[in-house]
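Example S7 (structure tokens).
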């Protein structure tokens, strides 16, 4: 029996969070922000994400996370890339963003993608592991082959231009609400 991960989708409805976070971090309301919440390690391919993002004009990339590639990411980050390290209030960061991007080479069922969808962000990601089970290509985001950073850059630009995919993602994320996960586990335990 497969029980999907779940997130507290209600935690991502944060009235006023977009304006608060942007003001606190020096971003204007008109700035376009792409966010990635992930470890800065080989699996998540943050260097590939930097390569892909270089193809996206007039936007900022905000990276939340730490890892073995953090120093290299900081060295390669241009003026439009902001490396925050560990972020305590991920829901506030997601509320401030316009799109979510991830360049992973391999994945399980990434919680960060679920959280981004619950926050109403269109997702641009590599079709690694369980990502295609979460993101409906062309509806809630754009999926590209692993390792194709040119396509990922185009997907990020497309996601920014199509915010309606975020609303579709929020609706899809409701299927992965933590209450569904808890009910599934409880049912399985009772059956056993």
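Recovered sequence:
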């Amino acid at each position: 029996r497969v029980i999907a991960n779940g997130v507290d989708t209600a935690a991502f409805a944060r009235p006023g969070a977009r304006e608060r976070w942007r003001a606190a971090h020096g971003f204007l309301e008109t700035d376009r922000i792409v966010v990635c919440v992930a470890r800065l390690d080989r699996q998540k391919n943050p260097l590939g994400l930097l390569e892909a993002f270089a193809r996206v004009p007039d936007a900022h990339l905000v990276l939340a996370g730490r890892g073995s590639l953090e120093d290299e990411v900081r060295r390669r980050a241009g003026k439009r890339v902001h490396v925050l390290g560990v972020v305590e209030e991920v829901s506030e960061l997601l509320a401030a963003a316009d799109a979510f991007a991830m360049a992973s080479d391999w994945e399980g069922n990434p919680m960060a993608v679920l959280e981004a969808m619950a926050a109403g962000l269109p997702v641009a990601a590599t079709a690694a592991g369980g990502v295609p089970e979460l993101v409906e290509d062309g509806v809630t985001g754009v999926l590209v082959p692993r390792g194709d950073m040119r396509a990922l850059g185009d997907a990020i630009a497309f996601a920014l231009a199509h915010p309606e995919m975020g609303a579709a993602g929020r609706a899809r994320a409701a299927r992965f609400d933590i209450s569904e996960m808890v009910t599934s586990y409880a049912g399985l335990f009772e059956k056993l």
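Notes on this example. The longest strand covers residues 33-37.
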